[in-house]
Amino acid sequence: MAVTVEILIDHKMNIKGHRMLNAMAESADTAGVKATVTREYRGAAHVLMMYGVGHPVKMIQWKDHLLSGRPCVGWDLGYYGRGDNNSYPMRLTINAFHPQHLMADDADPSRWDATAKPLRNEFNPDGHIVLCGMGRKSRHQYGIDGNWWERKRLEQLKRAYPGVPLIYRPKSGATETVGIRMDINSPIESVIRGARMVVVRHSNVAIDACLAGIPVVCEDGAASKLYGADICNPKNPSMEERLRFLRSLAWWQYRPTESLVCWQHILSVLTSAQATSALPVGSQSTQTARQT
User: pLDDT value at position 210?
Assistant: First the structure.
């Protein structure tokens, strides 16, 4: 029997989300999936698929679906290759805000190797530190009040690295300051080049830093599979470790033109024993954000 999937496509979704979900809907029959496109959550299908899990209303729907014992598939903006507007990549997750709990240790390297992206070495042990801010949606998603997380991390950085230049990179569109130099306009590759460390909560900037060979401190997100959260002892993985991680990450990012391959991956995960270990949203993730 075909897997039933509700693909939630609402009017307020941005064009990149629309493009990806429409592509998934169009290729569902070929993949052997019985998909129904809805504009409002119905909860009648076995699987719920949506874009932008952090939206306040969608997050409730996501949690309710998981609590019913059924899986959820989420989409958001891609980890890498985001400058390609013609075929914008989107990142995938299943049953949790981020997919690190399902990422393989030794994944098929073909998807990553096909990108032909070189790994760089722009790490400077005497360089600056980049603190990346959270967006409004993520703060609501994790129950974080204002820029509390940024201010706490900044205090820790000042104590651990006195005299080291610090640069704050707020989320795009943010105007708040935290009392240190802020760079919101430069390309992220320029901001992190020559840094000794990049500090994020779960930002995609961690992947930019991984590509550049710069140590990362992160608490959540896909990159937490490779990096740790200890500001005083940031992990600096070898090129081989970075490559192994990126080869696994590539199976959690797709373009609309790859929708059929994506369906095959989703179905494989949903039918594997790994899927049963996925953490329900709203338990450990939210508590960690509030207590760290």
Answer: 98
Q: Which residues of the chain have pLDDT under 50?
A: 273-275, 277-292
Asked whether 68 and 78 are in contact (CB, 8 A), the reply is: no
Distance CA 120, CA 123 (A): 9
Provide the pLDDT for residue 288: 38
Same domain, 93 and 185: no
Residues 78 and 169 in one domain: no
Confidence (pLDDT) at 84: 66
**In Å, how far are 9, 102, 179, 184, 286 from 274, measured between CA atoms?**
28, 7, 44, 39, 22
* CA distances to 54, 276, 285 from 203, in Å: 13, 26, 14
User: What span, in angstroms and rounded, lies between the C-alpha atoms of 259 and 281?
Assistant: 25
153 with 237, same domain?
yes
pTM of the model as a whole: 0.89
Question: Does 110 map to a domain?
Answer: no
Whether residue 29 contacts residue 54, with contact meaning beta carbons closer than 8 Å, is answered with no
Looking up residue 176, the CATH number of its domain turns out to be: 3.40.50
Could you tell me if 29 and 47 lie in one domain?
yes
Determine the structural domain holding residue 171 and report its residue range. Answer: 129-247
77 three-state secondary structure: strand
